[in-house]
Amino acid sequence: KGAGQPKPGLLGRLLGRGGDAGVVRRALDDDMLEQLEELLIAADMGVDTALRVTANLAEGRMGKRLSTQEIKELLAQEIARIMEPVAKPMPLYRKTPQVVLVVGVNGSGKTTTIGKLASQFRAAGKSVVIAAGDTFRAAAVEQLQVWGERAGVPVLTAPEGSDPASLAFDAMGQAQAEGADLLMIDTAGRLQNRADLMEELAKIVRVIRKKDPDAPHNTLLVLDATTGQNALSQVETFRKLADVSGLVMTKLDGTAKGGVLVALADRFGLPIHAIGVGEQIDDLAPFDPEEFAAALTG
Ligand code: GDP
């Protein structure tokens, strides 16, 4: 579709400044490479990744006369090459219920993503149960119930302030009893007290393992792409709190900061299972590296 990919044209506009419509050829020199690096850094790709991309692009091409269009295509190729290995849908296992633990800071789009994923699984004929594990935020629980209704999926809740691990344990029991295909567990995103959050997540994992030693089968970290470089430190933090197995990048609709995905792929190599491209239930798309690279380079 292309809808919802990063706002096209960031690099394109900058590369094309001078209004040459992409056809004027320039020799690839150090000055040009430096300009390219600046563009990539401005797109939130981070210094290390920007340098690597331009170095790869320059290899064997110094002094060659290239049009801006050719440079854009080469850039897109280099970016797609970094992104291809991480573009993987969330694996589905035979064993049920498959437990999906969903982590991330508040506001990253956890609730919305759980709703969208539940809807996709339902559409694929899977039965899903959601556990509203952020028991400290009444609003989060209500939001999740709204999404559950939209997706046609039951949402298990517990009283405000109660132990999320005990909810997760009960939810696991119910999902097993019902023979559900998937159990998605929402979690709190309060990074203000990391020690508490770490203990909370560890306890959830501990209790669900009493019912299935392989659970959780997936631990999804939801990241807001508009936070730019901040997303990198969130990965670092959450990897210490939980055994993150994959990423969902939200809010890729209308951001020029999509370059952070390249930095994430380059630095961590974690699979990107899906991207959020809007606030509606169908606005979750598989990650397509080529489409992404083309949109980013414009
Ligand atoms: P949570 O606190 O992590 O559970 O975050 P929410 O799911 O409540 O999302 C926070 C805000 O981001 C809400 O206003 C959502 O509508 C919005 N949101 C979530 N995903 C996307 C997305 O992919 N695109 C856009 N534009 N907004 C999103």
TrEMBL record:
GO cellular component, one term: plasma membrane
Location(s), subcellular: Cell inner membrane; Cell membrane; Cytoplasm
UniProt keyword list: Cell membrane, Cytoplasm, GTP-binding, Hydrolase, Membrane, Nucleotide-binding, Receptor
EC number: 3.6.5.4
Domain SRP54-type proteins GTP-binding: 97-298
Binding site for GTP: 104-111, 186-190, 250-253
GO biological process: SRP-dependent cotranslational protein targeting to membrane
Enzyme class per UniProt: hydrolase
Domain of life: Bacteria
Membrane topology: Peripheral membrane protein
Catalytic activity entry: GTP + H2O = GDP + phosphate + H(+)
GO molecular function: GTP binding; GTPase activity; signal recognition particle binding
Start and end residues of each AAA+ ATPase domain: 96-243
Domain Signal recognition particle SRP54 helical bundle intervals: 10-83
Oligomeric form and interacting partners: Part of the signal recognition particle protein translocation system, which is composed of SRP and FtsY. SRP is a ribonucleoprotein composed of Ffh and a 4.5S RNA molecule.
Described function: Involved in targeting and insertion of nascent membrane proteins into the cytoplasmic membrane. Acts as a receptor for the complex formed by the signal recognition particle (SRP) and the ribosome-nascent chain (RNC). Interaction with SRP-RNC leads to the transfer of the RNC complex to the Sec translocase for insertion into the membrane, the hydrolysis of GTP by both Ffh and FtsY, and the dissociation of the SRP-FtsY complex into the individual components.
The family this protein is said to belong to: Belongs to the GTP-binding SRP family. FtsY subfamily.
Name used for this protein in its record: Signal recognition particle receptor FtsY
Organism, scientific name: Roseovarius spongiae
Gene name per UniProt: ftsY
